[in-house]
Amino acid sequence: MSDSIKQSKAGLFWNAAGSTSMALQSFVLLIAVTRICGAEIAGTYSVAFAAAQVLWTIGVFEATTFFTTDAADRFSAEQYLAFKICSCALMLISGLAYVLIRSLPPYSAYLTIALCCFKLVDAFNEYFFALFQKNGKLEVAGFSVFCQAVLSTAILIVSLVLGRDVLLAVSLATVGKIIFSNAYNLMMTKRYVSLGLPDFSLNDLAGIFWSLFPLFLAAFCSNYIANITKFAIEQSSVASLQAAYNILFMPSFAINLLVLFFLRPSLTALAEYWRVSALSKLRDRIVKLLAGVLIVSILVMLAAGAVGIPLLEMVFGMDLEGRTPCLLVLLVGSGLASASLVFYNVFIVMRKQGIVLAVYCFVALICFPVSKAMVDAWGLMGAAYSYAVVYGIMFAIFAASYRIPMRSVLAHRPGE
């Protein structure tokens, strides 16, 4: 077996392990907070985590996929690093502004900032993930994500058990992640990649910013859309059921997680097909990715319909009787969200950020009134309906818009 094949298999394995650990982290931490601290604290934690997840978008600024698929090396690794430092600083400033503008109670404000810092480490590490993947070391990137997720989860749970203080536990877990990531990423960078000091050239930073800004706005809208039902519940008469909704939402991560197993490793191939205008291969890969999303969604829904509610009740210790329809509708929405994610990445590869931005902005404008109306009318079931409807609209628009850049290329390659 050749070294390249071994490396490819190792990359796929550790990418899967890293993606799994990151997806399970949210699930495991919510279990721990609910079991140890109770449903009320879990509800506060869930809303703070949702806010931190939206702020995380600022730190990432959608540079990961753009950097990974920069086949022409338009910008250097040092320029991307400088931009990452700036975006993470902006994320922290935005977190402070968020808690001040919303005038959150002290504990909620401190917890939101703590979780913002927790996610900030993840945002910064996205740079190294892209750096290693672009240089053919996906296994190094995946292993780093896996170790950070496992280490920070372990620290947080042990701290919760000993101190029963979510704020302290999150802070200690953040410190643990910082120490590990700095040591590991620096060591692997020296071993595999030639990386200089950050290049803060204003012209280059501006070039990266304007290239990524449409994608950033789209990703920000995406996180807003994904969490809008939680905010709608918070403002409704069923706010006391926030924890129940978050528990029912947990299995939806399984679809996104399994899709990432085969989506992320496909990015470099998609970028190369587009670069050389191999449109038939590009179309075939997209069809395979969408078929994978459909298969994964069906399998997860079958499993959830059979054992989902009893398993969630056993794990979280909450009564969820009669919530199977809500769970299944959320899974339908998650399948549509993952299918939309496939098109999202395809448009990034095509460098059609304007289309991505237009779709997400439109959906972001309609999602809150849709979610608020449905939650007010049908409670948690309305939240599930709105989640599926919003992502159904997004998928339909993306699928229709996909023809635009393809036709543009085909016009110059009639024989393709």
Summarize this entry quickly.
The chain has 416 residues and is mainly alpha-helical.
Keywords:
85% helix, 416 residues, 15 helices, 0% strand, disordered N terminus
- Find the count of extended strands (DSSP E, 2+ residues): 0
Radius of gyration: 21 Å
In total, the number of domains comes to 2
How much of the polypeptide forms β-strand, as a percent range? under 5%
Q: Low-confidence runs (pLDDT<50, min 5 residues)?
A: 1-7
Q: What fraction, in percent, of the residue positions are helical?
A: over 70%
Category by helix and strand content:
mainly alpha
Largest sheet: none
Average pLDDT for all residues: 84
Helix-strand pattern: HHHHHHHHHHHHHHH
Distance between the termini: 35 Å
Q: Quick one: overall form? A: globular
Please work out how many helical segments DSSP would assign.
15
